[in-house]
Amino acid sequence: MAPPQQVEDEAFVTLATSDTYALGSLVWGQSLRRVGTTRKLVVMITPGVSHGIRQQLGSVFDLLEVVDVLDSRDTINLGLLERPDLGVTFTKFHVWRLTQFKKCVFMDSDTMVLQNIDELFEREEFSAAPDPGWPDCFNSGVFVLQPSLQTYQNLLAFAMTVGSFDGGDQGLLNLYFKDWAYTDIQKHLPFIYNVVSQAFYSYLPALKQFGANIKVVHFIGPVKPWMHKYNTATGEVIPEPGTGHHGTFLQQWWNIFMELVQPKMDPTYLSGLAGELASLKLDASPQQPMEAVPEHERRERWERGQVDYLGEDSFQKIQERIDSTLQSGPAQAQPKPVDKSKGAVPKASRKHVRK
Ligand code: UDP
Ligand code: MN
């Protein structure tokens, strides 16, 4: 069968302002390649991304677009969110400047694609999925937009005059596209296009029922997949407690990272966490990334109980964790330490978990 036709004027776009977020971008890009996207892959980077990582980004992405950092400088509201780092997320607005494309899907670099999502290009600006924290707001980790210099200017003017109610891009975009909640259901992307971590502990029966449909996982919060520890002896991730990240999805992220990203990283050119991760040496052979299974087959397997990446075991584990959390407080919910653990992340570099 001939490979599907590539589409030149539509793109998936992400953003990285640092080498560590660039690692997320690399895994995200590989996750989209794996599911055979026919659209262009673009990463917007700021001058803070090192030369070493840029070269690697160049081998995965069709276009590296260097942009300036836009900072909300809104320390009061960001303080409310306990995420002073998020001012930088205004930099996302540069995606509206990519006018060589008719339509773009922006995705955070802490997302991972499990099934082909090219159908998102059938949606119009501004389409996004609800945020479970306040479902009349959308989550700005995945959205469909139409590049336009006019919209870009309007967003900047809006940022100066109105601002953001949470200090980040999500609080601004929800004010700017304020009709989203009430006017056009076509602009509500189904939740499966942006399944944020909270869903895993707030509605477990829904996860059991609909988990096979998930197309995009979003590792929200201050602790990102690359900050969890990884056991190089067993090839298993050791989830940090309290992040709400699903162990099976984290493992999937690390499988892609260890197989397709990490072997090409050069420790001589990288510093900080990226340098540390570049130096990881796997004692075990890496776990294979999950093969991309066609949608109908995935559903059939799910219904037969043959669940590959959200298996019965992992449900049991979550359930056990939830039970033990309820019985004895969050401290008890820690996974058992693994003896041969070679954690990649020094304690000092881990951010605190948002309560
Ligand atoms: N981002 C970045 N550098 C930063 C913070 C954020 O490049 O220091 C980009 C990155 O693409 C990230 C997105 O902005 O995925 C949104 O931030 P984040 O995912 O950390 O927010 P959350 O989803 O946790 O609210
Ligand atoms: Mn995110």
TrEMBL record:
Where does this polypeptide localize?
Cytoplasm
> What family is this protein classified in?
Belongs to the glycosyltransferase 8 family. Glycogenin subfamily.
Entry's Gene Ontology BP terms = glycogen biosynthetic process
The catalysed reaction is:
L-tyrosyl-[glycogenin] + UDP-alpha-D-glucose = alpha-D-glucosyl-L-tyrosyl-[glycogenin] + UDP + H(+); [1,4-alpha-D-glucosyl](n)-L-tyrosyl-[glycogenin] + UDP-alpha-D-glucose = [1,4-alpha-D-glucosyl](n+1)-L-tyrosyl-[glycogenin] + UDP + H(+)
The GO cellular component terms are:
cytoplasm
Instruction: Specify where the region named Disordered lies, as residue ranges.
Output: 284-355
This protein is called what? glycogenin glucosyltransferase
Please list which residues make up the signal peptide.
Answer: none
Keywords, alphabetical: Cytoplasm, Glycogen biosynthesis, Glycoprotein, Manganese, Metal-binding, Transferase
- EC nos: 2.4.1.186
For bias kind Basic and acidic residues, which ranges apply? 293-306, 314-323
**General function of this protein:** Self-glucosylating initiator of glycogen synthesis. It catalyzes the formation of a short alpha (1,4)-glucosyl chain covalently attached via a glucose 1-O-tyrosyl linkage to internal tyrosine residues and these chains act as primers for the elongation reaction catalyzed by glycogen synthase.
MF terms from GO for this chain are: glycogenin glucosyltransferase activity; metal ion binding
- According to its UniProt entry, this protein's organism is Lingula anatina
Indicate whether Transferase appears among the record's keywords: yes
